Amino acid sequence: MAYLDRTGDGISQISVAPSAVDQRPGGEPGRGLRSRSQRHAQHSIIFYEGDQADRVFELDDGIIMLYKLLPDGRRQVVEILNPGMIFGIAAGARYDCSAETLTPVRVSAFDRKEIEGCNTLQRHVSRCLISQMEKMHEHAMLLGRKSAMERVASYLMRMVPGRGGEDCIGPRDAECDDHDLALSMTRQEIADYLGLTIETVSRVISDLKRRGVIRLDRQDRIHVNRVCGLCKFTGIH
Amino acid sequence: MAYLDRTGDGISQISVAPSAVDQRPGGEPGRGLRSRSQRHAQHSIIFYEGDQADRVFELDDGIIMLYKLLPDGRRQVVEILNPGMIFGIAAGARYDCSAETLTPVRVSAFDRKEIEGCNTLQRHVSRCLISQMEKMHEHAMLLGRKSAMERVASYLMRMVPGRGGEDCIGPRDAECDDHDLALSMTRQEIADYLGLTIETVSRVISDLKRRGVIRLDRQDRIHVNRVCGLCKFTGIH
DNA sequence: CGAATAATTGAGGCCTATCAAACCGCGTGG
DNA sequence: CCACGCGGTTTGATAGGCCTCAATTATTCG
Asked: Is the Cβ atom of B188 within 7 Å of strand C at any atom?
């Protein structure tokens, strides 16, 4: 678990510089605000924990993870962000975590000062933060109280749209309750998100495979044979 | 760990009804908004997970914990709130966690709809959420990656003002680096906050006592003999 | 003072981490 | 075409940290 090399690989460093930057006066949520649209390659770092937090980002397309590091290299992925979410908002002068792309992404970068002066955007930020806060609560429950099996099952269920929540009404088709999903995270990243080791994540996935709940088409493509069967393992029921 | 009885004890039920309610037209953060000032006794529940989320609260005085339950009774305390913090803001129609007082408290209750229409308050909500989100990130790191000893040490350090953070400059007096703190949480509550069991929390505290890092004046009053010595155990250094 | 509640301590077991090795997919180049 | 190497994944053996269950001690409060 050596994630300490901030300058180790050239690839990340290159992709830190956004590949496409165009000033644009408008935009959907930041109407009337200048925002720079940026593109970043997969596995590139947008900012590091401790960097000067002078910009706020909105994820337009792709997936991003936020993570924190301990001095000895232990890593915790604190958030997985989907399009529409805001990130890079800091309470103090510096970012409290690093942001790394899991896929190629498009983001809109806003000037921090401008955001603070815009009511429209403030409201948007609030809405995002509230939703993200609830996800964090859910994740704290996962990290603090769930078993390895429950964590992995919860993680997979998160990627089945409209299922596993409060309002889940079960499979719409009693016979066919399957779903196909793309992970877009390595085992190590999943482990660091779920507070486990890579070996444990792998073992749990193998176990689910053995039980016939899932099938692996590729390492990063999982086919859930029975969504309800998977949901049974989340600890929610 | 049976926390499932929502109607079990009469005491909580009685104290759900605030003991003092006064309509007031003004207030500090909610200028121009009606807010009800409420008082709640220690160990009373302000709202339950799943309740209709039609009100937003600001903690004026005292300490409150937010927690979530799993169907089998497992509990995770997701936040500990100090005065000035906002709580009860939901993304959907219902609260995602329960709010229980750890001490006698004073809170201001706002109508949810009113908050959404007020820019001043929106900004205040944003600021609070950002700060709370950073705390959640820190807590996710604790829950996912820290040992029992590191969790308890981090928990205790959190209550030593101005120490243990990025900007900690060490003890101001080289000789005398002690601090006195009040827990205001039972061992069970601490355990549910740190993702541990009550026995483990107790054992770690005994261990710190044996090492001479802390001293227990009472069960809920801890005297830290050497703050820097305690900080060594947090995993941050 | 004694009952009730909370905290501590002990013994044992389980779940997950750790260490190590084998495996797999995939691009490279002989 | 296939050996080769590389990164990521899987599997195995073992150990250890924390949980569980149980008993004891301390604290609170009528």
From this structure: yes
